[in-house]
């Protein structure tokens, strides 16, 4: 290669390095703003903690040797007051000498340091102390979910090309070649060849750098805009916050050797499209390191994301085929989650295209998603790199067909991951049966609970919400997508043909015996019952609630024809019930004016025509006085009015969110957003008629 060609090649490489360094500098600047805002919020959090801490806690630091009575007699009642006082100011208090003042200050500083290390930063809605952090985090999130990958690629480009460019310098000029030593010329030629060999790959990685830089340089959002976005995707904000804050990971009770393997286990994110919380990363690495395990995290912690992260890692290592087995009611959810959270291709091995999808999966690979009841039709194969069984408690009875099918696959596949929030519902034998599936050689203690937990620790990991979600708002939302049954689809088609919009909205419950929505609703209620949680089910339609009530065996219903006193009696009886209970409510009747914070699980049977209707209903449970995380489940039917409503209302929902969340009064003013129900109905009917006739 001649001098001119070498110089041209190096110029291209220099341009890539400059762009990579610009991206890294801009990212560092935006990240620094977030870290500054985080540090400010953490300081406020620590001060709030110290302000609530009685001054008597200073004695704990000194083993009881420090007397705090002199402080209390001077009107100093909290650790914060002491922390804000200088030693000189303390000495001015009656009965406090120089040595005592130093001891008091040292004790307060130790408590402040401990509080700072343990402080869990929580973003409080519309709190001025949190707003700067939310705005800063939004700038990072708006750069895209792949920002961490671009930053890493920029570092790789810089670290690879910069030393090569320095070494290649003599090869870019005839004069420098003539004056360089033989060894230096040889090094320069080698560097030019190395640049030539790596430049195409570096250029491909740097193709997105200019757009990322543009995204990072966008002006920061306004406070209301950032808060609206935070409400829409708070999980992404908290995942990024946990990463910036260095989240402490709750590992559960694991033996030292298992813990060492998990900590040493890498987690490749090349095929993943979602940032993980620290505990989610730990769960995925636990599944990879131990190979055959049960993750029994409580509802709402993202077990599916942990599984997808493990699958994506194996795919990055070259694995091609994976299998997820789950109840039919969550097949669509799994397909959507896999495609949204990773670059892996999902194949639904269920329904009329089952055979074609199975052939395509066998030939092309990806993640097959099959039902528990249909698994016996698939032939176990060792080509599957990991088997994931969701809602694994459904296979606790080894005598059932589904359990036998799962057992056959477990015996064939090297890696097995069971997911269940209720690994033991009634008897410890159920738990033993699940462990026997994933690790039949594990010796499970017949002793008491402590011995049992210790014996299964190598194959079982569970975290509860209070263990890992210290800073999250008390609300976890999930869209539960299902497919129409044949009978329900017929009812839906007829409703569309008749241009009957209300019947279209409730067609998913037209045939209770085969209703996919009703089946998923029943599973959610059963899960809540197993965890002792109260449930409120909302629907706009009274006949839908009647169907749900018959299935669940409850007559406790809030409807529009009840007078206010009777409504309150029902709510009081629901709240007074010990443990699990179910309350059914028309969303308009129960969504306004009642406090339902006894409920921690909210199920909404169909999308509402106005976003404010749902917001108000959820606010009945998610409000002051709530002691549990509120889980909100929306039942949605694929390719139906549900999907059309969500698509059409998306833009207006964002507008409503910005309004509603800026004022408490918005909760009583749904008319502030102009959404014409009649026009919306006509639009959806026309679209559905065109779709079904095409």
Tally the helices: what do you get? Answer: 31
Poorly predicted residue ranges: 623-627, 654-676
> What kind of sheet is the major sheet?
7 strands, parallel
What percentage of amino acids are in beta strands?
5-15%
Query: Strand sequence of the main sheet, in spatial order?
Result: 3-4-2-5-6-1-7
Q: Overall pLDDT, averaged? A: 82
Q: Taking Cα atoms only, what radius of gyration do you get, to the nearest Å?
A: 30 Å
Shape: globular
Share of residues in helices: 55-70%
Write the layout of secondary structure elements.
Layout: H1 3-51, H2 58-61, H3 69-73, H4 79-83, H5 87-91, H6 98-118, H7 128-142, H8 147-168, H9 174-179, H10 182-205, H11 209-216, H12 223-232, H13 234-245, H14 256-264, H15 278-290, E1 292-295, H16 303-316, E2 321-326, H17 331-341, E3 346-349, H18 354-364, E4 366-371, E5 384-390, H19 401-412, E6 416-419, H20 428-438, H21 449-456, E7 460-461, H22 465-468, E8 475-482, H23 486-497, H24 501-505, H25 516-530, E9 534-539, H26 542-552, E10 557-558, H27 564-576, E11 581-586, H28 587-590, E12 601-604, H29 611-621, E13 630-637, H30 641-660, H31 677-693
Parallel strand pairs: 1-6, 1-7, 2-4, 2-5, 3-4, 5-6, 8-13, 9-11, 9-12, 10-11, 12-13
Helix pairs in contact: 1-6, 1-7, 1-8, 1-10, 1-11, 7-12, 7-13, 8-10, 12-13, 14-15, 15-16, 16-17, 30-31
């Amino acid at each position: 290669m001649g001098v001119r060609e070498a110089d041209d090649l190096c110029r291209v490489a220099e341009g890539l390095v400059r762009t990579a360094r610009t991206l890294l500098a801009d990212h560092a600047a935006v990240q620094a703003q977030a870290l500054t805002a985080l540090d400010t919020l953490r300081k406020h959090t620590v001060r709030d903690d110290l302000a609530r801490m009685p001054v008597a806690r200073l004695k704990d630091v000194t083993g009881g040797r420090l007397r705090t009575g002199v402080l209390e007699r001077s009107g100093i009642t909290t650790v914060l007051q002491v922390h804000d006082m200088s030693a000189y100011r303390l000495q001015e208090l009656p009965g406090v000498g120089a040595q005592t003042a130093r001891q008091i200050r040292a004790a307060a500083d130790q408590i402040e340091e401990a509080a700072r290390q343990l402080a869990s930063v929580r973003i409080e809605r519309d709190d001025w102390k949190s707003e700067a952090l939310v705005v800063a985090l939004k700038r990072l999130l708006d750069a895209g979910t792949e920002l961490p990958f671009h930053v890493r690629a920029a570092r790789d480009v810089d670290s690879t090309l910069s030393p090569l460019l320095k070494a290649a310098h003599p090869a870019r000029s005839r004069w420098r070649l003539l004056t360089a030593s033989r060894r230096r010329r040889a090094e320069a030629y080698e560097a030019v060849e190395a640049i030539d060999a790596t430049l195409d790959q570096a250029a491909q990685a740097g193709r997105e750098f200019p757009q990322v830089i543009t995204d990072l340089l966008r002006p920061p959002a306004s406070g209301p805009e950032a808060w609206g976005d935070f409400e829409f995707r708070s999980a992404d904000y908290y995942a990024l916050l946990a990463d910036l804050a260095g989240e402490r990971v709750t590992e559960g009770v694991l033996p030292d050797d298992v813990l060492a393997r998990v900590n040493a286990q890498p987690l490749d994110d090349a095929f993943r499209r979602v940032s993980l919380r620290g505990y989610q990363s730990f769960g995925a690495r636990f599944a990879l390191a131990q190979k055959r395990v049960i993750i029994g995290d409580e509802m709402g912690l993202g077990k599916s994301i942990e599984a997808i992260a493990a699958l994506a890692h194996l795919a990055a290592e070259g694995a091609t085929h994976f299998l997820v087995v789950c109840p039919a009611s969550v097949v669509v959810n799994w397909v959507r989650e896999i495609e949204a959270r990773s670059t892996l291709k999902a194949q639904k091995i269920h329904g009329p295209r089952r055979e074609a999808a199975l052939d395509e999966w066998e030939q092309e690979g990806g993640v097959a998603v099959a039902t528990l009841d249909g698994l016996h039709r698939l032939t176990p194969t060792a080509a599957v790199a990991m088997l994931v069984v969701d809602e694994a408690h459904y296979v606790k009875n080894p005598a059932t067909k589904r359990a036998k099918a799962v057992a056959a696959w477990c015996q064939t596949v090297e890696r097995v991951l069971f997911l269940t929030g209720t690994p033991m519902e009634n008897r410890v034998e159920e738990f033993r049966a699940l462990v026997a599936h994933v690790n039949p050689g594990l010796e499970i203690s017949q002793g008491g609970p402590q011995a049992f937990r210790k014996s299964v620790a190598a194959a079982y990991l569970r975290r509860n919400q209070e263990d890992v979600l210290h800073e999250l708002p008390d609300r976890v939302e999930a869209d539960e997508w299902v497919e129409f049954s044949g009978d329900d689809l017929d009812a839906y088609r007829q409703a569309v043909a008749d241009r009957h919009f209300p019947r279209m909205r409730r067609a998913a419950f037209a045939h209770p015996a085969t209703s996919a929505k009703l089946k998923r609703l029943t599973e959610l209620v059963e899960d809540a019952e197993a965890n002792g949680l109260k449930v409120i089910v909302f629907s706009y339609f009274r006949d839908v609630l009647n169907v749900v009530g018959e299935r669940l065996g409850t007559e406790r219903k809030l409807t529009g024809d009840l007078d206010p006193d009777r409504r309150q009696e029902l709510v009081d009886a629901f709240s007074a019930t010990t443990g699990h209970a179910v309350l059914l409510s028309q969303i308009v009747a129960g969504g306004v004016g009642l406090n339902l914070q006894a409920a921690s699980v909210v199920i909404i049977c169909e999308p509402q025509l106005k976003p404010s209707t749902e917001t108000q209903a959820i606010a009945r449970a998610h409000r002051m006085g709530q002691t549990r995380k509120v889980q909100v489940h929306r039942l949605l039917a694929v390719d139906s009015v549900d999907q059309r409503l969500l698509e059409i209302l998306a833009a207006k929902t964002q507008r409503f969110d910005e309004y509603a969340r800026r004022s408490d009064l918005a909760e009583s003013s749904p008319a502030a957003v102009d959404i014409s129900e009649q026009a919306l109905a006509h639009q959806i009917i026309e679209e559905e008629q065109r779709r079904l006739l095409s």
